[in-house]
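Supplementary notes for students who missed Thursday's class. We covered one full example, reproduced here. Read the sequence, then the structure, then the short commentary at the end.
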Amino acid sequence: MPGYETRKLDVRVGAREYRLRALSDHMQYADPDGEARRAGICSASWSLFGQLWPASRALAQAVKHIDIANRRIIELGCGLALPSLLLKSRGADVTASDHHPLSERFLDYNAVLNSLPPIPYRDLPWTKKIRKPRQYDLIVGSDVLYERNHPGMLALLIEQLAAPVAKVMITCPGRGYRNRFSRLMEEMGFELTATPMAFSEDEPAPYRGRLLSYRRGL
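Structure (token representation):
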């Protein structure tokens, strides 16, 4: 027994249905070897990676038709990595990244569950110095601006990851830190287009959430 319980979710994005193994609820916790603790993940946030969040669904919708030709793509803070699974099903050169010790295990399982080839994975804390910078043409993430220090950390990471000509797409459910992040991205030469976006099928307008699209050199 792994020490935690899981469930299967059926998720439709456009015409295709995906099946995901997720944690059964927010109360799950298992860190017998202290790996999560060493990674800075406390018991209260341990289960967050294993839930399917509305922002992840929204990001999957947003990348459903995006141009993937000749683009190296990375998903930041992927969790269950629904956007990465969708991109892989389209034949994209996509890498999923997170810092939770179980993220890669769930990613591998869910790729097989959806009859997809393995998806490359990077254990990527946002404070890490990138050895081979400027590799990615498209960087995506969902609800990654939920703590005060995230705008600065994420901007510095993107500065290392993004190619000179690049696009960054983030689905934000209305966090207050997005304005600071956008200012930092502007300082790096990115132009922002913010599009109101529903994060659930029954959400009425006006929408609080946004698809934040940053472009540089495009």
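Commentary. The chain has a mean pLDDT of 96. The domain at 51-216 is CATH 3.40.50.150 (Rossmann fold). If anything here is unclear, bring it to office hours.
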